[in-house]
Amino acid sequence: MREVVASGRTVEEAIALALERAGLTRDEAEIHVLDEGSRGVFGIGAREARVRVVPRSALVEEPADAATLQAASEIARDLLGRMGFSATVYAHATERGLAVEVRGEDLGLLIGRRGQGIEALEAVLGAMVHKATGSRTVVELDVGGYRARRRQQLAQMAQRAARRALAEGRPVHLPPMDARERRVVHTSLSGDPRVATRSEGAGGDRHVVVEPASRPRRPRPYRRPAPRSAPSRGT
């Protein structure tokens, strides 16, 4: 089964529709928000939210081979040229598949608000690479180093949350994030045995919780034992 793109009045509605069409649950799919949509002003300029759902079982998480890397580079260059952008494209293998980096000037339109432009372009690029090569490798895209900077910010946020959780001895809830960003947080703290992470919530409210791996038990206050009464003697 291939990816499914769906639209809805809200992100949550679009996700529900895409999962229904794909016959998947949230745990069985990777969800990418392509456009959060907009209500517009008095309905003028309104647009629906769009999401892409990819079955986890459909993706092969292993380093891409040389032929797939070359195809991804050529497809990305051609796609950017058709869109009117002049940029340099680099592709390299990763543990999960391949990553395409786009570098150049005036790439703000490609990045979009909160990286939504990258999400949309990545969906198109991934579909084109899969069709051209027949592979189902994971294709990740970065434009102007936006995602690299975001990963660094998330890693720093994760470390701050871990320190706070340990200092206060309680769970720390991070802001809502998509699946990709939650994965960065989980990975950033996976090597710290003092803390544990988990995802919580649904839809646009799904976020990471960082908490102490084992909460310290509070010592019980010492209580002096009550004096024993002397046994009564019979007369």
What does this structure look like?
By secondary structure, the protein is an alpha+beta fold. The chain has 3 domains: 4-58, no CATH class; 66-144, K homology (KH) domain (GMP Synthetase, Chain A, domain 3); 148-212, 2-Layer Sandwich (Ribosomal Protein S8, Chain: A, domain 1), CATH 3.30.1370.50. The chain has 6 helices and 9 strands, in the order βαββαββααβαβαββ. The strands form 3 sheets. Strands 1-3-2 form a 3-stranded antiparallel beta sheet. The protein has a 3-stranded mixed beta sheet with strand order 4-5-6, sandwiched between helices. Helix 2 (66-82) packs across helix 4 (116-133) and helix 5 (146-168) packs across helix 6. The mean pLDDT is 84.
Categorize the overall geometry.
Answer: globular
Question: What name is given to the CATH topology of the largest domain?
Answer: GMP Synthetase, Chain A, domain 3
Give average pLDDT, whole number.
84
Level-1 CATH class name of the largest domain = Alpha Beta
Class of secondary structure makeup? alpha+beta
Number of strands: 9
Please tell me how large the radius of gyration is: 25 Å
Write down the domain tally: 3
Specify the biggest β-sheet. Answer: 3 strands, antiparallel
Number of helices: 6
| Name of the CATH architecture of the largest domain | 2-Layer Sandwich
Strand percentage lies at 15-25%
What share of residues is helical? 25-40%
CATH homologous superfamily label of the largest domain: K homology (KH) domain
Give the N-to-C terminal Cα separation: 94 Å
| Low-pLDDT regions | none
How do the strands line up in the largest sheet?
A: 1-3-2
Following the backbone from N to C, one meets helices and strands in this order, namely: EHEEHEEHHEHEHEE
